[in-house]
Design brief:
Length: about 270
């Protein structure tokens, strides 16, 4: 099942990688001809005023701006999980400067190719993009000062393993800043089971309190939700998965879909005398 979901995500984002942000917005789910599918751009925020922004790398796939709360400093090493075409990496690179390093990790070959081409155009020497799975990161332990991610961890079937990997690759005292999609209340079963909605971040989302519990249970401390915003999925998208009665019940159920940006720290290990 997990392999099937990963394949769905990989196929969808491979199609999206071949298009511009404008094409993604105009073709509903980022692949021309599939307007019955999920519109990924309903989550995205505007990046065009940020230093380091590169429009070629912005596919409109995020659900926040994790760098805004990441406390990135010059000289830091930053890892971006699910780096796509490189949008957040290039913003992070403007923050780390010439002395820092930015590493983007993505499981989709087409995205990695696109990101590398974008980086080559900018002639960056301290930005790298590597193919890899978030549940088994191809990165050594204690590598990063900061780990960021934008609307990607909700697509990972084993979120506990993903956060354990983030904990592993962070330096002691390092921290994460991730934007993601979470729920308050239960989704209708048809949405839970819809693979397309999973690739569009909704049915892969979990409860906010469960999300925060996973972060703390994998060793992180001082979690803080810096930003929370309710997401409204258009009726025409929901009607691909729900009938009119189910839609009405869903809209009055109190269930909410939210984008959040969460910060948490890998604690400094103190040696205590017995």
């Amino acid at each position: 099942m997990e392999k099937d979901l990963k394949l769905v995500v990989k196929e969808k984002y491979s199609l999206i990688a071949k298009q511009s942000k404008t094409q993604n917005e105009n073709s509903c789910c980022g692949a021309t001809g599939c307007c019955s599918s999920m519109d990924y751009t309903i989550f995205s925020e505007k990046y065009d005023q940020l230093q380091g922004y590169n429009p070629d790398a912005d596919l409109g796939l995020g659900c926040g701006i994790p760098t805004a709360f990441a406390q990135i400093k010059q000289g830091d090493t930053v890892i971006d999980l699910g780096s796509g075409a490189g949008n957040d990496c290039f913003v992070a690179r403007a923050l780390v400067g010439e002395t820092g390093q930015v590493i983007g990790v993505d499981m989709t070959e087409t995205m990695i190719d696109k990101a590398r081409k974008n980086s080559e155009k900018l002639a960056f020497k301290n930005v790298a993009f590597i193919l890899g799975d978030i549940e088994n990161l191809p990165v050594t332990a204690e590598k990063a000062d900061v780990v960021i991610s934008n609307c990607v961890l909700n697509l990972v079937p084993d979120k506990r393993k993903a956060f354990s990997e983030i904990f592993r690759v962070l330096k002691t005292g390092g921290h994460l800043s991730v934007s993601d999609v979470v729920l308050k209340g239960e989704l209708p079963e048809n949405l839970k089971e819809a693979a397309e909605m999973y690739a569009g971040c909704v049915s892969g989302a979990i409860q906010l309190n469960q999300y925060l519990d996973i972060i703390t249970s994998t060793g992180f401390v001082h979690p803080k939700v810096h930003k929370e915003q309710e997401i409204t999925v258009p009726d025409e998208i929901l009607l691909n998965y729900l009938n009119q009665l189910e839609l009405a019940q869903f809209k009055t159920s109190g269930t909410g879909i939210f984008s959040i940006t969460v910060y948490a720290e890998k604690p400094v290990q103190l040696i205590m005398d017995n």
